[in-house]
Amino acid sequence: MSIPLIDLQKQYVAIKKEIDAAIADVITRANFIQGDHVKAFEEEFAAYCEADFCVSCGNGTDALILALLALGIGPGDEVITVSHTFIATIEAILHVGATPILIDIDPHTMNMDPSLIKEKLSEKTRAILPVHLYGQPCDMDAIMALAKEHNLRVIEDASQAHGAKWGGRRVGSFGDVACFSFYPGKNLGAYGDGGAVVSSSEGLIESIRCYANHGRFEKYNHIKVGVNSRLDTLQAAILRVKLGYLEEWNGIKRSHAERYASALGKSDLILPFVHTKAESVWHLYVVQHAMRDALKEMLESEGISTGVHYPIPCHLQQALVHLGYTAGSFPRTEEVCASILSLPMYPELTDAEIDKIARIYESFERCIH
Ligand SMILES: *Cc1c(COP(=O)(O)O)cnc(C)c1O
After folding, report:
1. Which residue among 34, 259, 345, 366 is least packed, with the fewest CB closer than 10 Å?
2. % of the chain surpassing 90 pLDDT
3. Ligand 1 centroid to 81 CA: how many Å?
4. Residue range 235-248: average pLDDT?
């Protein structure tokens, strides 16, 4: 019995009828770009995120780029974010010509440590870009307070946190804008690429809508130099079906996280830390162990797939050497990158499978002691 990190085939089997009908509807109507499904999905997703408006786009990376463009952030501007993220967060800042200013994480939550923001502020700082990594919300109280005090914009990278809550409120409803990815493996995933920006500012959303569709509102009247970054109608139809299950799926993952915690709580593993104000949606279940590579090997040899998100911190990536960071720049980020391991986490995972993973871990611990 092998256990994957995530099982999208099992998920499809469970909702096949509805998905197939949604796809057939789009194809039958030959309505492939924009249209009813896209508009309806945007409304439904905004409501889910407790935001007023949503514009969909081609992928999560574009969502970040479009949001930065609409906020007028570009050359000469600085945006504060973390090194411990998927590289897209930082690529987006670079693609609009702005400078990413990286900071270290809180070693417990593995998210941005807001107490490190102040020392990085300069007259060029325009925005803070918190990433709700692994489905765990950042400390939005501290981040929003700093942003208010220093008149900064806040762009949430919520690509891993559809539905997560901070203080009872959905992520995506705190910042000026929030960006989401619908990459297939995300909590809300399409059957291809997709992304969205939500905001309570209609002006920002309309500006993004314009940039994302060749800088136009009307067919041949282009008012900006834009790009082509639209959510396929097929993907919108699929996402509408899956959005209907998201709360249920996130709830099942929450109970999986509890089962992992009670099965592994008394071990040498460092388990994910959840702040009392945070409600995670468990995009990934990330544990830490000093002998991570040996543990990974043992689990894989027993058919358990695992992942490392992410093995090389962004500030040490070859593509980003020009930012001038070196080994030692962010000690907490570097330390967790060497010890983190993502265990299987998806709604279709069974209690028996979690118990099996826990048993294999126990035998690993016996081996090394
Ligand atoms: C997935 C992801 C992105 C990028 O999304 P794509 O849809 O793959 O372009 C950006 N930021 C984070 C934190 C992500 O996990």
Report:
1. 366
2. 96
3. 14
4. 98
Q: Are 309 and 340 in contact (CB under 8 A)?
A: yes
Q: What's the CA-to-centroid distance between 61 and ligand 1, angstroms?
A: 6
pLDDT per residue as tens digits for the range 284-296: 999 999 999 999 9
User: pLDDT tier at 218 (50, 70, 90 boundaries)?
Assistant: confident
Give the CA distances from residue 3 to residues 10, 38, 310, 357, in Å, rounded to whole numbers and listed in that order.
12, 35, 21, 9
Locate the ligand 1 atom nearest the alpha carbon of residue 186 and give its number. 1
Reading the block at residue 258, the tokens are 């509890």
The DSSP result for 85-112, as a single string, is: S-THHHHHHHHTT-EEEEEPBPTTT-SB
**What is the DSSP secondary structure assignment for residue 137, as one 8-state letter?**
P
- Nearest residue (by CA) to ligand 1, atom 5, is 60
Handedness of CA 315, 321, 325, 328 (dihedral sign): positive
More confident residue, 40 or 265: 40
CA 337 to chain centre: 17
Instruction: Find the residues whose C-beta lies inside 6 A of ligand 1.
Output: 59-61, 85-86, 88-89, 131, 157, 159-160, 181, 183, 193, 195
Q: Where are the alpha helices (DSSP H) in the chain?
A: 8-29, 36-48, 60-70, 88-95, 140-150, 202-212, 233-264, 292-301, 331-339, 351-368
Distance CA 137, CA 130 (A): 9
For 179-195, what is the mean pLDDT?
Answer: 98
Q: In what helix (H) or strand (E) does residue 217 lie, and over which residues does it extend?
A: strand 216-218
- Measure 86 CA to ligand 1 centroid, in angstroms: 6
For the CA of 160, the closest atom of ligand 1 is 15
> Which region, left, alpha or beta, applies to residue 196 given φ > 0 means left and ψ of -120 to 50 means alpha?
beta
Query: pLDDT tens-digit profile of 135-169?
Result: 999 999 999 999 999 999 999 999 999 999 999 99
